[in-house]
């Protein structure tokens, strides 16, 4: 774990920094590490609202190292995922972070899925994903003895890792080379200082004030926000646009009972349906030896609401009053109702999974953990599928960069995203 500082005297020299990064998830931590390695003479701080780092999306995901098959050729997502996966394996090897290159099968169980599977293979080839191959039913059983399908796309370079551990390793490295981590600091206001602090001979060297909800202050020259589920709100408090809006979707997992873990060796995924935004139920082995099944995707009534009945009035009103969400719901109402039904009734989820592993029974699974995904939506109800960066107007806008959307697979891409964000900061702020 990263020992965290608590610096609260806004006039103290060590509460002023060249760059402040808001958000201690995997994107914020990877970016902090990349920035300080490139600019060792600058001072950096990372501000995190929780008492620990990497607790939310980073600590609640499936743990897959994606290889970059799914994404539109030429898109940032495709480029960053392929490079990010390579960098992740190198980083884990170098730092001694445990991982497994256990592979993935994307399995067609119906004839009409085969053209989509072949198109996915072509897409993976265009994205330079290594060692992809199409395999038949016999080869599927050789790799996954309990899996049934008529054709599959075999991706041997897909792996698994504990992303929270990876993120904490980034944070540890950031601190070892001189970065400051301040936890329990929820940014509630970002503004330009009206005057220099009392007794300061430096004038307005650090013109930006970041105030926490508890009234603490940090001063800096430049700000990078990597707010995940709160990226739109961080943008708004600095005077930037409220769109794209973040709408939280909860994904609930099932877990195989330990005595049934033999049913799954590697990742098993369905052929994605292009009409729907999420990848569908999949089987994912974990680094601790457990096997997760799922997730579904339902609207969360709280941005960090991991339990079925978690509710936050502001988050709920914010989501349901948004025209973009209303349009998304109308376009996908049947699919959405199915997701809710499957979330409530375990047997309905298992029925989906039995298409791939017929031996699976409802009695073989337990309810597992949940994660909440920060889904960026535009006002027309379209899912924002690629990265969005935003600055602003005036003095404050010229000193701030918001990462408005870092979509899945942000963890797999984190080291490549960090390179891109650092390039962007260098260009905007002339670092």
From TrEMBL:
It holds the Pfam family DAO. Its EC number is 1.1.99.2. Residues 18-423 form the FAD dependent oxidoreductase domain. Its cofactor is FAD. One of its GO terms (molecular function) is (S)-2-hydroxyglutarate dehydrogenase activity. SUPFAM superfamilies: FAD/NAD(P)-binding domain (SSF51905). It catalyses: (S)-2-hydroxyglutarate + A = 2-oxoglutarate + AH2. Signal peptide: none annotated. The keyword Oxidoreductase applies. Keywords: FAD, Flavoprotein, Oxidoreductase. PANTHER family: L-2-HYDROXYGLUTARATE DEHYDROGENASE, MITOCHONDRIAL. Belongs to the L2HGDH family. This is L-2-hydroxyglutarate dehydrogenase, mitochondrial. It comes from Sinocyclocheilus rhinocerous. The lineage of its organism: Eukaryota, Metazoa, Chordata, Craniata, Vertebrata.
């Amino acid at each position: 774990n990263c020992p965290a500082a608590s610096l609260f005297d806004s006039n103290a020299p060590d509460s002023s920094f060249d760059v402040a990064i808001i958000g201690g998830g995997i994107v914020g931590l990877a970016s902090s590490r990349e920035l300080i390695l490139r600019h060792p003479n600058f001072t950096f701080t990372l501000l995190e609202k929780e008492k620990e780092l990497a607790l939310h999306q980073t600590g609640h995901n499936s743990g897959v190292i994606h290889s970059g098959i799914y994404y539109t050729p030429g898109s940032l997502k495709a480029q960053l995922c392929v490079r990010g996966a390579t960098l992740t394996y190198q980083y884990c090897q170098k730092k001694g972070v445990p991982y497994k290159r256990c592979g993935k099968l994307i399995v067609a169980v119906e004839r009409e899925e085969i053209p989509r599977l072949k198109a996915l293979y072509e897409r993976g080839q265009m994205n330079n994903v290594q060692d992809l191959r199409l395999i038949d039913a016999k080869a599927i059983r050789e790799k996954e003895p309990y899996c049934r399908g008529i054709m599959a796309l075999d991706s041997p370079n897909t792996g698994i890792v504990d992303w929270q551990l990876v993120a904490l390793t980034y944070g540890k490295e950031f601190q070892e080379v001189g970065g400051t981590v301040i936890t329990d600091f929820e940014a509630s206001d970002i503004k330009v200082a009206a005057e220099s602090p009392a007794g300061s001979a430096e004038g307005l060297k650090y013109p930006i004030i970041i105030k926490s909800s508890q009234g603490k202050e940090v001063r800096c020259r430049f700000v990078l926000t990597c707010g995940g589920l709160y990226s739109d709100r961080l943008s708004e408090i600095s005077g930037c646009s409220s769109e794209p809006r973040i709408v939280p979707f909860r994904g609930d997992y099932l877990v195989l009972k330990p005595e049934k873990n033999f049913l799954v060796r590697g990742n098993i995924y369905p052929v994605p349906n292009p009409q729907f935004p999420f990848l569908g139920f999949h089987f994912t082995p974990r680094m601790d030896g457990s096997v997760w099944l799922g997730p579904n995707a339902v609207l969360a009534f709280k941005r960090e609401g991991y339990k079925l009945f978690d509710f936050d009035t502001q988050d709920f009103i914010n989501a349901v009053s948004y025209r973009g969400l209303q349009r998304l719901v109308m376009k996908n109402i049947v699919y959405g109702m199915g997701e809710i039904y499957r979330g409530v009734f375990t047997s309905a989820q298992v029925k989906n999974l039995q298409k791939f592993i017929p031996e699976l029974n409802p009695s073989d699974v337990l309810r597992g953990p949940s994660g909440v995904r920060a889904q960026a939506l535009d006002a027309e109800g379209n899912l924002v599928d690629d990265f969005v960066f935003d600055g602003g107007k005036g003095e404050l806008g010229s000193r701030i960069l918001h990462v408005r959307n870092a979509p899945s697979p942000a963890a797999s891409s984190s080291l490549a995203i960090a390179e891109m964000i650092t390039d962007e900061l260098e260009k905007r702020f002339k670092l």
